[in-house]
Amino acid sequence: MSAIFRWHFRRKLGSSNSLGSAHSCGQQIIKLLIVALSISSCTITTTIRDLNIPIPAIEPIPAKIAVLYSEEFRTYKHVGPALRDSAGNDVSQGMKLGYQLGDINVSLFDQLTTNMFRRTETFDSWEALAPSREQFDAVLEPTIEHFDTWQGEDGGFKLPGVFLNVTYRLKMYVPDNQEILNWSLESHQVFCIELVVSCGPSTKRDIVEAGLRDVAAQFYLKFPSLPEISSWTATL
């Protein structure tokens, strides 16, 4: 029995010797045990629904783009490994950290594409896009290729921290179905903190937002000057 339950039990029994008090105490302990068991093996999910990216001073590419968001992209969820200390011991007590990233994926690339291109329209499948495919200069399909975040020590960092690796892949197709771009955007972030246990939901949210802002900055800086994009825009 944990310290909190022992304390609660002693406190309740010490307050009265009556049968009613003991019965009430027992009921409350049972409730606490039920709650404890219900969270002993669960995933704590952090949901990030929106992110405001600063709009850069760029001239939009004069093209009409179909942006394709697959179901996996729109509903992406990541569940991390069990929390371990620096010695590799499992200290998670059955709990894992999860991230619901579907909404933020869409929010991120909605902002990136509407700022990068003259006109955009979004679709949720190739089937939905098919009837109007010829109306667009190209189709851009972002996917999330890798997402990983964890707490502990990593590499040369001796202080406990929160770490993030995220990779998006962008594929672009012209109307004849030719793939003209296959490009990845990666971000690696670390937030060092004094104690791992002090890392709350806000820290986990902050590191994901930092990673996505880094992805956005790379997109704005590098995308227009990619050789594949330069060749394509010359045909518009």
Sequence-ordered SSE layout with sheet pairings:
Elements: H1 3-15, H2 19-39, E1 42-47, E2 61-68, H3 71-74, E3 77-79, E4 95-100, H4 102-116, E5 117-123, H5 126-129, E6 138-154, E7 157-173, E8 179-192, H6 201-222, H7 227-233
Parallel strand pairs: 1-4, 2-5, 2-6
Antiparallel strand pairs: 3-4, 6-7, 7-8
Helix pairs in contact: 1-2
Low-confidence stretches: 1-20, 29-41
Largest sheet: 5 strands, mixed
Structural class: alpha/beta
Name of the level-1 CATH class of the largest domain = Alpha Beta
**Strand segment count:** 8
Strand proportion, as a percent range, falls in 25-35%
| Amino-to-carboxy terminus distance | 71 Å
How many domain units? 2
What is the CATH third-level topology name of the largest domain?
Answer: Double Stranded RNA Binding Domain
Radius of gyration over C-alpha positions, nearest whole angstrom: 25 Å
Key descriptive features of the protein:
236 residues, alpha/beta, Double Stranded RNA Binding Domain, 2 domains, five-stranded mixed beta sheet, three-stranded mixed beta sheet, 7 helices, 36% helix, disordered N terminus
Explain how this protein is built.
The protein is an alpha/beta fold. The protein folds into two domains: 1-39; 42-233, Lipoprotein like domain (Double Stranded RNA Binding Domain), CATH 3.30.160.150. Helices cover 36% and strands 33% of the residues. The strands form two sheets. The protein has a five-stranded mixed β-sheet with strand order 5-2-6-7-8. β7 (157-173) and β8 (179-192) form a beta hairpin. The model is unreliable at 1-20 and 29-41 (pLDDT under 50).
